Amino acid sequence: MLELKNITKVFNAGTVNEKVALNDLSITLEDGDFVTVIGGNGAGKSTMLNAIAGTFPVDEGHIIIDGTDITRLPEYKRAKFIGRVFQDPMTGTAADMWIEENMSVAMLRGKSRGLKWAIKEADRKTYREMLSRLDLGLEDRLSTKVGLLSGGQRQAITLLMAAINNPKLLLLDEHTAALDPKTAAKVLSITKEIVEESKLTTIMITHNMKDAIAYGNRLIMMNAGKIILDIKGEEKSKLTVEDLLAAFAKAGSDGAANDRMLLI
Amino acid sequence: MDFFNWLNAMPGAAAQGMIWGIMAIGVYITFKILDLADLTVDGSMVTGMATCAMLMAAGWNVWPAMLVAFIAGMLAGLLTGVFHTVMGIPAILSGILTQLILWSVNLKIMGKANQALPARTFDVLLTQLRKYESLVYLFLIVVVLIAVLYWFFGTRYGMSIRSTGCNEKMSRAQGINTDLNKVVGLALSNGIVAFAGSLLAQYSGKADISDGRGAIVIGLAAVIIGEAIVSRMGQSFVIRLTGVMIGGIIYYIVYQTVIFLGLDTDLLKMLSALVVAVFLAVPNLKKKYFSKVKVKAKEAA
């Protein structure tokens, strides 16, 4: 499904600020894998997601989705395969556009956008059905500017948009970190529902170890641009926070187990 | 001030205002929809004037001359777009570079600093000699232009241009080629500006190399006045574009009135710029003012 082969990314190469963000990183995801990613600040979690999404080119290695090498594809072309939700709820939607307009933009991800009228009555019906499953009352507010919604509502819409047309890969970059605990739980449960229903191959970064354990069928821990722990299936279901902390302490004698990582 | 003289000048002011309103709709596309400040327009306005005037002087019919003016403007916008997206130059600087390039290009188009286009000799569509007839033509042109833009920005592709201006990161994540869309938007915008230029050349009976100086300020003024007027009438695209058009007309009526009041015309450009500066500052000052109020309210509580 998704293959990362020996990915290396160095920021500010050749300067005093040189930072090896991804260090010869390789991983293969199976179809339908729901991977949670944990690791300290600067471990390379977001860099990995951005490398897959094509926000910047990687220095070395190959990124392959379903046999297609996308390493050289620009970000907007990779979007055909990938749905994304960002940490900042403002990033995933266009604030000055209506809910239905945002949905219509997402509907055509990876397709050609011709000069056909963008939103027809039949589309509105589809959007309403999709929005009603969020249970946030947004289905009656199609012509509301997204900028008027709360962060949680915007993040829920972004999630819907990212999952439209069942992308081959769903990338969630700490998408609940900026929300209050109650809203975060709600968005997480919507996430679980959508991912399971459409069997989306998903990578979810989280700072919450309990969530990392509770969600998905596979967990990876990153440190210094490498994957230092990769636990799947049966083994993962038995995992406890203590196990993770122990693994972390072992790997992180260099101080990687910082305060934020310990938020559980 | 002679009131009847002033009243007599109003149809002319309205016609000029509508021409600048059309130009301002071009500015609206970059400034409001794409969120880019594009200074190309000072040059592309004159490119439109010069192209139309020279082609008509060479015996062309007015319609194809206007079409070529539109295309010439699009090419100017294309150049700014390439500077900005392919070469990575900031949008403002890209526009300034193209503007300077166009100064030379416009001189080469005309072969001199100005070209007369007298309505008595040429079969023009608009002229200040026939103000009311010109107003009718302008009104029809404006209706068609707004209808076409309403359709375009309601299409799937048009929607992706709006989303590019609204949130670039989101747009790329949704598979939109944001660089291409910026180039297309800049080309469309400057095409409309040059088209307005071709109308102005006919109406004023001449094209002059310095006619475009400060065009961006007039365009912004019309956009800002228009927003202030229609902001309470809903967010529909048609209403907004109509607002920009009305903004252009109001700008010109005020302009004419100020001249009638005997103001030193040397000061007009300065005053226009200051008015635009004040209006651009209003949203920022409002934010500052209101946040202060909030802090005070909190302290009081």
Word description of this protein:
- The complex is a heterodimer of chains A (264) and B (301).
- Chain A is of the alpha/beta class.
- Chain A has three domains: 46 residues, no CATH class; 119 residues, Rossmann fold (3-Layer(aba) Sandwich), CATH 3.40.50; 47 residues, no CATH class.
- Chain A has nine helices and ten strands.
- In chain A, helix 3 packs parallel to helix 5 and helix 5 runs parallel beside helix 6.
- The two termini of chain A are 31 Å apart.
- Chain B contains eleven helices and two strands, in the order H-H-H-H-E-H-H-H-H-E-H-H-H.
- In chain B, helix 5 crosses helix 6 and helix 9 packs across helix 11.
- Chain B has a two-stranded antiparallel sheet with strand order 1-2.
- Chain B is an all-alpha fold and 301 residues long.
Mind summarizing the main beta sheet of chain B?
2 strands, antiparallel
Shape summary of chain B = globular
Distance between the termini of chain A: 31 Å
Count of individual helical segments of chain A: 9
Unreliably modeled segments of chain B: none
Q: What is the CATH fold-level name of the largest domain in chain B?
A: ABC transporter involved in vitamin B12 uptake, BtuC
Q: What form of chain A results from the Cα inertia axes?
A: globular
Under CATH, the topology of the largest domain in chain A is which? Rossmann fold
List the domain count of chain B as a whole number: 2
Residue share in β-strands of chain A: 15-25%
